[in-house]
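Weekly sync, protein design subgroup
Attendees: M.S., D.O., the rotation student, P.L. (late)

Item 1: inverse folding check
M.S. brought a backbone from last month's batch and wanted to see whether the design step gives back something sensible before we order anything. D.O. pointed out we never logged the input encoding, so this time it goes straight into the notes. Structure tokens as presented (140 positions):
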């Protein structure tokens, strides 16, 4: 489903669906954790892909625009991404010292977000929460 959605999106943007773009999306779809573009490029190369580094960096904004991935953290101008999952929303606590990411889900926060949207007559479609600070190890 994601592959077809991406191909249709590329067509509407006047772009071609290429083997490289397909390989990038396929690799992202099997990833279970956050990733950065360089890590994605290395994973693809290790599998024998001919994907260029530039293709990885050019494809990521397209995947963000269509809503298949999202930026989840940016530490020292270094972005990490993850697949968008409609059934597995979570937020992040990020240690600004070591970069550790703790994923969490809070029904209370979700409910509060919905209440605020209702009060403001705003239709929220998604949100991203990052709490920056220090993990237990770095706090000491």
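Designed sequence read out in the meeting:
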């Amino acid at each position: 489903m994601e592959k077809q959605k991406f191909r249709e999106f590329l067509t509407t943007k006047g772009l071609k669906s290429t083997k490289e773009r397909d390989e990038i999306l396929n690799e992202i779809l099997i990833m279970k954790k956050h990733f950065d573009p360089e890590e994605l490029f290395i994973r693809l190369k290790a599998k024998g892909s001919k994907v260029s580094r530039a293709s990885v960096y050019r494809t990521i904004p397209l995947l963000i625009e269509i809503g298949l991935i999202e930026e989840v953290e940016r530490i020292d101008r270094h972005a990490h991404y993850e697949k968008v999952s409609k059934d597995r929303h979570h937020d992040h606590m990020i240690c600004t010292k070591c970069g550790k990411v703790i994923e969490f889900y809070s029904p209370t926060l979700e409910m509060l977000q919905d209440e605020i949207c209702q009060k403001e007559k705003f239709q929220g479609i998604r949100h991203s929460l990052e709490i920056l600070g220090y993990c237990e190890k770095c706090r000491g």
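Discussion: Residues 53-66 form the longest helix (14 residues). The chain is about 45% helix and 20% strand.
Action: P.L. to compare against the previous round before Friday.
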